[in-house]
Amino acid sequence: MTVSAVTAASSSTQSSASVNTFSNMQSNEFMMLLLVELKNQDPLEPMDSNEIMGQITQLNSLQELQAINGGIANLAQNNKLVEAASLLEKMVSYVSGDDLVKIGLVEGITQSGEEISLLIGDDAVALDSILSIQPAAKES
Question: Is 51 contained in some domain?
């Protein structure tokens, strides 16, 4: 009984390692591996065509998932930009770089790589440092 539990655990570890290796594999690497496998197969016991189609389907699924992940990352970045733009000309309270709570008018937005900051006076403030938002006072 202990042996079967060890065998099951070992099989589970091997299959999860295979999944991780497969997910890190590029499509070119996968196709090269598949071609090598086809060239070196036993002619008396050729590879099952269903198995080949299954592997190609897995590759296509992986590529689609990677494209979806990229799209989601772009949407998240765009949402941050929209959130920052919605704060323009509004009074906000925020935690400054020296850990003081300050209040100021959002005058602009800056982006460096994926980092989006609000320009408040002389400070560039990260979105996650904003504590509260108030509409700007209207000038008469």
Answer: yes
Domain with 123, as residue range(s), is: 88-135
pTM over 0.70: no
d(CA 44, CA 70): 44
Tell me the three state secondary structure of residue 58: helix
**125: which 2 tokens?**
């403030």
Distance (Å, whole) CA 133 – CA 87: 8
Residue 125 pLDDT exceeds 70: yes
Task: Pick the last residue of a domain from 27, 54, 77.
Answer: 77
Encode pLDDT of 33-49 as tens digits: 777 877 887 777 777 77
| Short-list 112, 115, 136, 140, CA closest to 127 | 115
